Amino acid sequence: MTALLRYLTHPEVEVDPDTPVPQWRLSAKGLARTRSLARAGWLSGTTHVISSGEYKALEAAGILAGALSLEVQRRDSMHENDRTSTGFLPPEEFEAVADAFFRHPRESIRGWERALDAQQRIVHEVEAILAQRLTGDILVVGHGAVGTLLFCHYAGLPIDRAHDQPAGGGHYFSLVVEGRRVLHSWRPMETPPPPLPGGNLA
Question: Is the pTM of this model over 0.90?
Answer without folding.
Answer: yes
